[in-house]
Amino acid sequence: MYDHKLIEKKWQKFWDENNSFATTNNKEKKAYILDMFPYPSGAGLHVGHLEGYTATDIIARYKRLNNFDVLHPIGWDAFGLPAEQYALKTGNHPASFTKKNIDNFRSQLKMMGFSYDYKKEVNTTDPNFYIWTQWIFKELYKKGLASIEEIDVNWCEQLGTVLANEEVIEVNGKKVSERGNYPVIRKPMKQWVLKITEYAQKLLEELDYLDWPESLKMLQKNWIGKQEGYLVKWKINDSNQTIETFTTRLDTIYGVSAIILSPEHPLLLEISNEEYKDKILSYVNQSKQKSDLERTQISKDKSGMFIGTYALHPLTNEKIEIWVSDYVLNSYGSGALMAVPAHDQRDYAFAKKFDLKIKEVIETKHLPFLDDGKHINSEVANGLCIKEATEVIYKKLNLENKVKKETTYKLRDWIFSRQRYWGEPFPVLFDKDNNIHLVDSLVELPFTNNIKPSNSTQGPLANIKDWLNVEIDGKKYRHDTNVMPQWAGSSWYFLAYILKNDDGTYLPLNSSDAKKRFEKWMPVDLYIGGQEHAVLHLLYARFWHRFLYDIGIVNTKEPFSKIINQGLVLGPDGQKMSKSLGNVINPDELVSESGADALRLYEMFMGPITDSKAWNTDSLNGIRKWLDKIGLVFNNLLKNINSNSKNPELDSQINQLILDITNNIEKYKFNIAISKLMVFINYLSTLKEINSTNVIRDFAILLSPFAPHFAEEILFNINEKPLQYQSWPIVNLDKIINKNPQIGIQINGKIRAQMEIIPSWNEKEIVSQATSLPSVKKWIENKQIIKTIYVENKILNIIVK
Ligand code: ANZ
After folding, report:
1. In this protein, which residues make up the domain named Leucyl-tRNA synthetase editing (predicted)?
2. Omega within 30 of 0 (cis) for the link into 183
3. Is the separation of the CB atoms in 529 and 53 below 8 Å?
4. Same structural domain, 328 and 282
């Protein structure tokens, strides 16, 4: 048994002392390999972190051995609610708590042997870092993309803060905070808002060019929610006002039964009939409690009321009732719709509930009828299908200026203030008239031990009176008492790594030297993390990056060219790991018992990186035993080196191994790569002698991305240089002895299996071998083979009935 404690310590010390993972800058090719930087919680690293971090480490080590300049950094996403809540509970300061956690995280990462360049380490709570977070904010402000607005926000009483839409989730139809599951209500408040909606189209377009999982792109696409349609103008009867409705089905306009406004529609009270107003107001209040999902769900009972006024149909001049209902969202389209019950599900439910007329304008088999068909009862559009009907109706309305094409997005602007303490302060001052003045220099987060919320709408910073008020040239100003959300720092941290100098300082983000470095390193070549960040971090980061591109700071439109979403590491019981279930696995104990190399190998051997998989400590022990076995096999062979021996089979096997490991690492199939290494060791264990240590050296290098300490130790034992001075073995294809050919087996025209054939087999033998394969058997069971056609060394067709 090898002494993992001794060996792992020894090599970690060596790597530290020899700057083994320093970012180089003298090669032709580069690889920027990025992890989603952790939030340094009190719980430390968990095995889920280690899964993604091991995967990126394999790639970073592999790229270094292949003569790439590699940037593989780590840092701390250290502002945020949990530290603040912990501080409130324990009376500690979030800064000291966070520092302690970071120290613990760093030593855990080192314990795992990850090849980070720690000189590039960043921390979002470091003023030298967030001075640039503030700078980006100021640039957004200067370009009109940041403003203070009185808006309906998601207010969470328990957390004492506003939350972004992306931070609110639905549980049983109720809106709750993503953190803590506390109730969230809608409430109008003055808040900083970033206009991500102005970037909706750009963010949508570029998605197509990214090498991201399709499911992740879909999530972003749906979140952005582009919809093309029409705005139709409706004149209000006996009034000069008009109302605009948004529709994607202009063709159905002859089937309108009512115009329906959202409860928040700005014209609602103005145009409603006096007698109805009290009732309408109480309806509006009721709808505040409901979530958007609850409001728009098809299955939910519809509510609403007539507001006592009418609109005039733009084509028929017919009087159409105007209603208010909360299934109409104010933030979508124009906050008002034309209800066509015969051809829309929600409108149908609404019409049924309130007994509105249902007029069919497409030949229908059932109601509501959502498909295309021949239009009826539609004057100019009779006999036409959707496309043509839309065109003629559009033309007719357009002549009278009653319609325009409109693209709408589901994406909402990003609410950017939080009434918290532990975050980036805003680099602004307000004068006595509430005008905004940007602060040129850093606005540092003031120290206080009183981080309790000051009252229900102001952050704890309002408690610090001598910070809050400032006097400049005899004029009085106030600081902003809000701080930025946790997502601010993570929206650009991948650029900060590039800015970080080895002496701990940062290049200015807007300097020409910085730009040169971005040209070298961006975009990120590989980014691994969980899918839970699909619409939060990954959308915000794309938005900021695209903005920085537009103002000429960075050279790529997109920050992350390739993303892999790692699957969840589940507890041994197959459930998501959680403290309450008591199924959390602690990496510290595992490393102490089996070693970091065994843990790294195990995490990669569990299954494909993208799959969710359950923990199994027995398999980890098996991996550890395999490492011991490698030691035994090598020790044995080292005693039997015979420079005269020739073994073409061994030459073939090692070259095949080089090819296989290379291909599988390139395809991120780490579990398969490890199984190939295992098969090779089995083969080596059958040999009596080898002619040199080259095969051992090559094996050690192939193993090194997965189990670096162990690999270094092997190299050391055969007097080879450390990994830092090695390169990836080069495959010699000529040495690979051609294996037996593989043929495909088709059953009724579909490939169902592959089979290796021995050259001496005749056709009859091949058919009999093929039909006895389990994967073929299940397709021919209880069937009759009518015919077989064999194409030499390629395919066997079996026709069955
Ligand atoms: C008339 C109509 C007839 C519609 C018909 C659909 C079918 P998607 O496709 O989900 O984006 N709508 C418009 N504004 C709305 C709002 N603020 N809140 C809720 N619903 C709204 O939906 C587009 C359709 O949603 C629009 O097209 C409109 O109903 C409704 F046979 O207009 B339609």
Report:
1. 221-397
2. no
3. no
4. yes
| Å from CA of 200 to ligand 1 middle | 20
604: in domain: no
Domain count, the chain: 5
Nearest to 494 by CA among 535, 534, 444, 548: 548
Q: Tokens 């409430």 — which residue?
A: 187
Are the C-beta atoms of 527 and 73 separated by less than 8 Å?
no
Which residues partner with 444 through β-bridges?
A: none
Nearest CA residue ID for atom 19, ligand 1 = 328
Query: Structural domain of residue 181, as residue ranges?
Result: 135-197+415-486
Same domain for 440 and 402: no
Asked whether 248 lines ligand 1 (CB < 6 A), one says: yes
Q: Are residues 139 and 160 in the same domain?
A: yes
Residue 456: pLDDT over 70: no
Q: Identify the CATH number of the domain in which residue 787 sits.
A: 3.10.20.590
Q: What would the two tokens of residue 132 be? A: 């640039």
Q: In the predicted model, is pLDDT for residue 89 greater than 90?
A: no
Domain-ending residue, one of 556, 580, 604: 580
Of 486, 507, 533, which residue sits at a domain end?
486
- Residue 505: helix, strand or coil by DSSP? coil
Distance in Å, CA 339 to ligand 1 centroid: 8
- Are the C-beta atoms of residues 385 and 374 closer than 8 Å to each other? yes
User: How confident is the model over 319-338, as pLDDT tens digits?
Assistant: 999 999 999 999 889 999 99
- The response to whether residue 527 sits with its C-beta less than 6 Å from ligand 1 reads no
Query: How big is the chain by its Cα radius of gyration, in Å?
Result: 33
Can you tell me which atom of ligand 1 is nearest the CA of 327?
A: 19
* Residues of the chain above pLDDT 70, percent: 99
544 φ/ψ angles, rounded to the nearest 5 degrees: -65, -40
Reported as a single tens digit per residue, the pLDDT across 411-429 is: 999 999 988 899 999 999 9
Q: Domain with 260 in it: what CATH number?
A: 3.90.740.10
Q: Is the CB of 333 under 6 A from ligand 1?
A: yes
In a domain, 75, yes or no: yes
Nearest CA to ligand 1 atom 26: 247
User: Left (φ > 0), alpha (ψ -120 to 50) or beta: where does 735 sit?
Assistant: alpha
Q: Does 627 fall in a domain?
A: yes
* Separation of CA 300 and ligand 1 centre (Å): 17
Q: What angle do CA 566, 124, 128 make, to 5 degrees?
A: 145
378 in a structural domain = yes
Q: Is the CB of 340 under 6 A from ligand 1?
A: yes
We report the CATH number of the domain holding residue 536 as 3.40.50.620
* Count of Cβ atoms closer than 10 Å to residue 316 Cβ: 12
Distance 401 CA to ligand 1 centre (A): 21
* Structure-block tokens of residue 363: 């030949």
- Could you tell me if the CB of 252 is within 6 A of ligand 1? yes
Does residue 683 sit in the same domain as residue 763? no
Distance 338 CA to ligand 1 centre (A): 8
Residues 398-409 pLDDT 10s: 999 999 999 999
Convert the pLDDT of each residue in 586-613 to its tens digit: 899 999 999 999 999 999 999 999 999 9
CATH number at residue 726: 1.10.730.10
pLDDT band at 615 (very low <50, low <70, confident <90, very high): very high
